[in-house]
Design a protein that fits this description.
Layout lengths: L2 H24 L5 E2 L8 E2 L1 H12 L1 H21 L4 H6 L3 H19 L6 H38 L7 H41 L1
Antiparallel strand pairs: 1-2
Helix pairs in contact: 1-2, 1-3, 2-3, 2-5, 2-6, 2-7, 3-5, 5-6, 6-7
Length: 203
């Protein structure tokens, strides 16, 4: 693949995915779906970051993850989805770090994608699952680290029991996000990778 084409391709995909992240981040019920009022919203934004990381690599994955984190930080001030979002996502560490790592980890793992179609599909599904769990796990862990007493008050429980209460609250969300990631990431990333490979041969 020629450097000029590679750079043009990268910038084009990065621009499209950045625009999509902004739409998902700020248009209600597009990237954040509140099924039960008061509980954390289910996100679809991680799909965009993971797909971008698989296609473009860890550096751009980290960039997309950071953009996701910044939109979460801004949303917590201007249009929060629930009381917990107001508490935790106004902290830049909780808002940005887990999302940055989602893109970085997904992109790093995708560097070693196998060539066999079936193995590649399974590997992308596994990458999506791992990346989604990283986001959920870090958000829960950092919330407990920084805001265990305040978050315990929101859930009407003790600080000692908070981690279990949060795990319960996030279980439904995480399960749906993992299922969506496992299915959709490979389904979307596979043709995009094929297009990238085919186009690169012509250039």
């Amino acid at each position: 693949m020629k450097p000029r084409f590679l750079n043009t391709y990268r910038m084009s995909i990065l621009a499209v995915l950045t625009a999509l992240l902004l739409i998902q981040g700020f248009v209600p019920m597009v990237g954040n779906l509140t099924l039960i009022p008061g509980l954390p919203a289910i996100t679809t934004i991680h799909l965009t970051v993971i797909i971008g990381a698989i296609i473009l690599g860890p550096r751009d994955g980290a960039i997309l993850g950071t953009i996701w984190g910044i939109t979460s930080l801004i949303r917590a001030y201007v249009m929060p989805t629930d009381p917990l979002a107001i508490l935790i996502f106004r902290n830049p560490i909780i808002a940005i770090l887990p999302r940055l790592l989602v893109g970085l980890i997904a992109g790093s793992l995708a560097v070693k994608l196998p060539k066999a179609p079936t193995k590649k599909t399974l590997m992308m599904g596994l990458i999506a699952i791992i990346s989604t769990m990283v986001n959920t796990g870090l958000v829960i862990g950092l919330t407990w680290l920084f805001y265990q007493h305040q978050a315990a008050g929101l859930y009407h429980t003790s600080a000692n029991q908070l981690i279990w209460v949060m795990l319960s609250a996030f279980t439904v969300n995480a399960t749906l996000e993992i299922i969506a990631a496992a299915i959709l990431v490979s389904a979307i990333a596979t043709p995009l990778l094929r297009f990238k490979r085919t186009t690169s041969k012509k250039n």
